[in-house]
Design a protein that fits this description.
The chain is mainly α. It folds into three domains: about 50 residues, no CATH class; about 90 residues, Orthogonal Bundle (DNA polymerase, domain 1), CATH 1.10.150.130; about 170 residues, hpI Integrase, Chain A (Orthogonal Bundle). A three-stranded antiparallel sheet has the order 1-2-3. Strands 4-5-6 form a three-stranded antiparallel sheet.
């Protein structure tokens, strides 16, 4: 083969052309060659390079994983706008105002990424957003979820070659929501009124299980065993998902009140078989506290703080506490539950005296 001549490539694999004139980057890589509507050849320019070797390498890499060249300059903000339209302008599914608001708020917190080409965004760029510890853990979860969805969308539509959002993580402690645990007197007031005031029993269930309100409201009846006396559920982190919490002997009767094998969810909306919304439960929660004579401004999350406080005061093992509430622990390495694990958790819970 004569010196200086490039090896002939298969049809459709692109070409390297040396441009005329005195250019700093004379070698142009052309891909996706086609005939336009006027009958003239058209193509996309992958890039221009200083020498033929670099141009050949770039073309070879492109042919390993072809992409739409016209999409490579799309910014994070432009991708978000396309994804937003794809997700929320879908007539087959409707989203709550809260969901849309969370999405918009999370996007606003990613301002440092807005004008970056999404193909150039790496793990460190996204991680810098999540390392802003002035944000709550819950807000960080919204941001991480948004990044995962946008980058998945970008990968599916060939805007990016690799999804770097898979490697981001939330570095702030999981349970950063402020709260005021219930006092012994307030817990006693709840027990005094448990058979008189509606939904007081659910407050006590929260206090003696440590479930987040969303975890309890979305818990399926099938995940509750009255034979083993356990509840299985959980959201958020890998340590929190699918965790098992033994049912304290003192609240078995309360759990039985809501356990109906023919219903999908443990605590259902009274009007249908759907889970109760947080908004509806908050209203019932505050009404129950008021009726019981409790004037402290509590939230359902305070029940979770009360649970950990009760366990700690009773001398429960720290690893057991972490496992019961779904916190990551350096001492906790196993992801699965054995019979021995469940019995240890049951012993920890039964340390709390009712």
């Amino acid at each position: 083969m004569p010196r200086g001549k490039a090896m002939r490539r298969p049809n459709g694999s692109g070409t390297v052309i040396k441009m005329s004139g005195n250019r700093r980057r004379p070698y142009e890589v052309r891909v996706n060659t086609r005939i336009d509507e006027w009958g003239y050849p058209a193509y996309d320019v992958l890039g221009r390079f200083e020498d033929r070797i670099k141009a050949d390498i770039a073309l070879a890499e492109y042919n390993k994983n072809p992409f739409d060249v016209k999409k490579r300059d799309i910014t994070f903000q432009e991708t978000y706008q396309m994804w937003y339209k794809w997700k929320y302008d879908n007539p087959a599914k409707t989203y709550s105002k809260s969901s849309v608001s969370c999405t918009k708020g999370a996007f606003a917190k990613c301002a440092s990424l807005h004008n970056m080409k999404i193909r150039n965004i790496r793990t460190g760029d996204m991680q810098a957003v999540l390392d802003d510890h002035t944000l709550s853990h819950a807000y960080m979860e919204h941001i991480a979820n948004l990044l995962h969805q946008i980058f998945k969308y970008a990968a599916e539509y060939d805007i990016i070659e690799k999804d770097y959002s898979k490697f981001i993580r939330i570095t702030k402690a999981e349970d950063d929501e402020a709260g005021v645990p219930f006092t012994k007197k307030e817990i006693h007031m709840l027990w005094q009124n448990v058979d008189r005031v509606p939904y007081t029993d659910t407050i006590l269930i929260l206090i003696y299980t440590g479930w987040r309100i969303t975890e309890l409201l979305t818990m399926r009846t099938e995940n509750i065993s009255l034979m083993e006396w356990t509840m299985q559920g959980g959201i958020k982190t890998s340590a929190g998902k699918n965790r098992i919490v033994p049912i304290h002997s003192g609240i078995k009767a309360l759990v039985q009140r809501y356990y109906k094998p023919d219903t999908t969810f443990f605590i259902s909306n009274p009007d249908n078989n759907k889970p109760m919304t947080k908004h509806s439960y908050y209203r019932l929660f505050h009404a129950a506290l008021s009726e019981c004579g409790i004037t402290t401004k509590h939230t359902p999350h305070d029940c979770r703080h009360t649970f950990t406080s009760l366990l700690d005061s009773a001398g429960a093992n720290e690893v057991c506490i972490d496992r019961l509430v779904g916190h990551a622990s350096k001492s906790l390495t196993k992801k699965t539950y054995t019979h021995k694990d469940i019995e240890e958790l049951r012993e920890a819970i039964e340390l709390v005296k009712i």
